[in-house]
Amino acid sequence: MTPPWEHRLAAGIALVVALFLVHVAWAQPPTVHGLVGSSDHDVLAQMCFGETGTHERACAAQVHIMVRRAELRGMTVGRMARIYSQPLRGASRRAWVRGLTTHGRRPAGFPERASWSATQARFRALHAFVGDVLTGAEPDPCPEALHFAGPAWLDGDAPTGFEPCCEDVHERQRMFCRVPAGGAS
User: Fold this and answer.
1) Residue 129 in contact with residue 59, Cβ under 8 Å?
2) Using CA atoms, how far apart are residues 173 and 20, in angstroms rounded to an integer?
3) For the segment 83-120, what is each residue's pLDDT rounded down to a tens digit?
4) pTM of the full predicted structure?
């Protein structure tokens, strides 16, 4: 027979674990796609800032594309964005966006002639917008897209097998594409 103090200890441990799990669930922002951690939110805001500046419709489309691609590949949204986005990979002159935070200091590589205070204010606003996208307050402007690409694709360098879509979203900065039925993703 188990002593009564062990029952109370087990019940106490179960209560502490349950309270911790409730706290963790409340600490994460709910999203239209389940839970996305705060670091994923930060990475998605960095991606948008590096890819499109503060163009909100293009950012909303890119965030939803990253969520779709992450779900297809079974990885976190933040990891998918780091793999997919050239600025986050360090493969562009805007690689400094990887150091942007809502409360941080000027990242290494930030352009000398740019205003840090203005950039920080724009990033904070974009970060809040990404939060709205993740909670579903901002709809997906391009639900059929699975890819986005830069100006080179707009000039005819798109690989075969990709169909442009959502021309009203990109404003000659980004192309959004769907993959035809049976095509690779």
Assistant:
1) yes
2) 45
3) 989 899 988 888 899 999 998 889 999 999 999 999 99
4) 0.74
